[in-house]
Design goal:
Chain lengths: ~200, ~200
């Protein structure tokens, strides 16, 4: 896990005379935000600090992200994208197991902890709930649907199975243990999620 | 679904000269609290109101329940106990389906909404998180473990399956859709949870 650069040693990009393309500026901002959120959580994430580190104006940041929460979620989504990417080794069970272990690792970082707090706050904050779904959870669900649908097309999952339900029985089950920690998230738990679902728990 | 009695028409128990047994008083209090929480949520649940309706002193309430949250959780647990009780028709799949439908019904009440808000707040409030686990979630898990273990002993679930994981893949999956509502909780979803888990999703 990489840690956030110390702000004092981080060099903001020099602002040249020419305008940098918006896409590039946006990617820089998301990289800065992602590093901070993963390493520290969101308590000390401010528009001012991000503006300084990414070498962009606060006006630009506010134009693209209406709130600190939106900025944090967008940065987090991009920061975990590679870690949470699905392998495709033609063995969906192995790929899911591998991804679930990575996911549990990410959730154990300050960034993962911050995500649980955002889910928590969103129970009483409809704007944050909408931002969370738009900027994080719906995108993550889509990526899982794609991988599971590919497995179904290849015959690794039965045709009559609704892959949307599997998302709740895999990652949703992990979120449940994280949000209500009566039982721990262990490697054996993660493997059992996949085995139970693919093999079924009834006698064969 | 019964609604809370209107406070103005609710008659507090007359306080006789003799002392009522503590168990009886406790049961009365929990009944009053449960009715309020299910019908309204917890926003207007106060020690004063409960003391008045149950005919007990606030001192007694404070002695038994250290906080409003603890009182609400204890009352809620008892209020839903019958609705969420597991049938035992010797067909665990049918019994689970039936219970999951009841559970989704309870979660759609103001009391269920309040429960989600407690889970939300408990992400940043360690005392509330501990109270939630002690007074609600660990007890509900135990009841599910009992029912699932009985099914395993009867051969409806394989011996090598850890029934604790099934709780997260059934009720945990429902909580996930409630806490992060990207997808709705429908009857088809509830049935699919049981079918996926018992039959497995791999081709047979």
């Amino acid at each position: 896990m990489s840690t956030a650069q110390d702000d004092r040693t981080a060099r903001p990009r020099p602002r040249g005379r020419g305008r940098r393309p918006a896409d590039e500026v946006r990617a820089d901002v998301l990289a800065v935000v992602g590093r901070i959120v993963l390493a520290e959580g969101i308590a000390d994430l401010t528009f001012e600090r991000v503006a300084r580190l990414a070498g962009v104006s606060r006006t630009t940041l506010h134009k693209w992200w209406p709130s600190r929460g939106a900025l944090a979620l967008d940065g987090y989504f991009h920061a975990v994208q590679n870690t949470l990417a699905f392998d495709d080794t033609q063995d969906v069970r192995a790929d899911l197991r591998h991804q679930l272990h990575s996911f549990a690792g990410v959730m154990a970082t300050p960034g993962g902890r911050a995500l649980l707090e955002i889910i928590g706050t969103s129970q009483t904050d409809a704007d944050l709930a909408a931002a969370y779904r738009r900027l994080y959870s719906s995108g993550r669900r889509e990526l899982a649907y794609e991988r599971l649908t590919r497995a179904r097309e290849r015959g690794e999952i039965r045709d009559d199975v609704d892959v949307r339900v599997l998302v709740d029985q895999l990652w949703g089950a992990v979120y449940h243990r994280l949000l209500v920690p009566d039982e721990p998230v262990t490697p054996a738990f993660l493997d059992a999620l996949v085995d139970n679902l693919f093999d079924g728990v009834a006698p064969r």
